[in-house]
Amino acid sequence: MIKESIITExxxxxxxxxxxxxxxxxxxxxxxxxxxxxxxxxxxxxxSVSNKNMNCAFPLAGSxxxxxxxxxxxxxxxxxxxxxxxxxxxxxTMFNNNLTLNKITKTNSIKICTDDANNFLLNQHTxxxxxxxxxxxxxxxxxxxxxxxxxxxxxxxxxxxxxxATDTAALTGTYPRVTKRKYWATSSKNYxxxxxxxxxxxxxxxxxxxQFDKALAPLLSYHKDHYFRVYFKHENGKEKCDKIIKQHxxxxxxxxxxxxxxxxxNREICSCGTQFSFMGPLWTGKLFDxxxxxxxxKNNPFPEEQKFLDILxxxxxxxxxxxxxxxxxxxxxxxxxxxxxxxxxxxxxxxxHFSLTGIKTDINIKEIIKLLQ
Length: 373
Ligand SMILES: C[S@@+](CC[C@H](N)C(=O)[O-])C[C@H]1O[C@@H](n2cnc3c(N)ncnc32)[C@H](O)[C@@H]1O
Ligand SMILES: [Zn+2]
Hints:
Strands 5-4-3-6-7-9-8 form a seven-stranded mixed beta sheet, sandwiched between helices. Strands 11-10-12 form a three-stranded antiparallel beta sheet. The chain is α/β, with parallel strands linked by helices. Helix 10 packs antiparallel against helix 11. About 35% of the residues lie in helices and about 25% in strands. The protein folds into two domains: about 250 residues, 3-Layer(aba) Sandwich (Rossmann fold), CATH 3.40.50; about 80 residues, N2,N2-dimethylguanosine tRNA methyltransferase, C-terminal domain (Phenylalanyl-tRNA Synthetase, Chain B, domain 1, 2-Layer Sandwich). The protein binds S-adenosylmethionine (SAM) and zinc ion (ZN). The site of zinc ion (ZN) has 7 residues, from loops.
């Protein structure tokens, strides 16, 4: 049943037609309350970086809630022009109505389009505008794949490219052939699958940047609820691209002794004698800019995000590939590993947002077992 509804999020009012069911593609206008956290963090991130006077593009704007929030919540110096787009036929009328409802004056610095997202991204060159953006937000249904190439080609130097992927099954190895086709890599359904899915996604986007000599390094990357989210900072240059490629490796995992390691090769034998299983190729560099996440956790205005940001901040201090899971260690080695806090101290480890019982440490599994026993 379609009903006109008033929705509020962080002081923004939306008057939209919604289906009174779970958010789906069939909704007349797409609005997903679960993604409020995703939007909160995007507002906080842009208020925490030094970028100013940004031309921001929202090719898949949906209800337009994110650009409306940017207009209200970003510091005045942040935005030059906002370009919003969605292919839904009445998008322009709906967005204009919501601007009025929120008492935001429609000026030349707000451009509203209804086009295919790729056409929109590639065709904004005018006498007044170079056509390249300082911030692009790709927020699709499922995979971001159809939009990555255009987004990467239109992101400006020092610009930020934000990408959401909700096709978690494809990225975490539920359908290995889909992972191969869509993400040019192998994932595996083990306890690290959310980290490996995130790193597989990062490498796929980076490869598409590299073809244009654009180096895309993650500023912040995470998995939450049912989605992955990565903010890339773009730098130009062949050397920077070469540096990125050098950090594309395999993650090897031994299900017998729980050892893991990164390697240029995908067929290796663990020191316990078992053949490693492999995931990747994937990004083995940093997931976080630790200064940025520290500042975000400190200046966060959204209480509901604080716990999550604090974990990301802690995790950024040991930004290594892969993690160990205390429950899995306990089950496999059949001894009680005790509580999280003492284990973190003993193992010089930090918590990880990928799992409630997960820990990140530089210490290898043999040493971990010795220390925990
Ligand atoms: C997940 S929703 C966007 C949600 C929105 N960013 C938010 O924060 O609420 C995806 C949107 O992309 C639009 N869309 C899908 N394919 C598109 C395309 N090829 N070009 C333009 N818009 C498209 C859909 O109409 C839908 O509104
Ligand atoms: Zn082993």
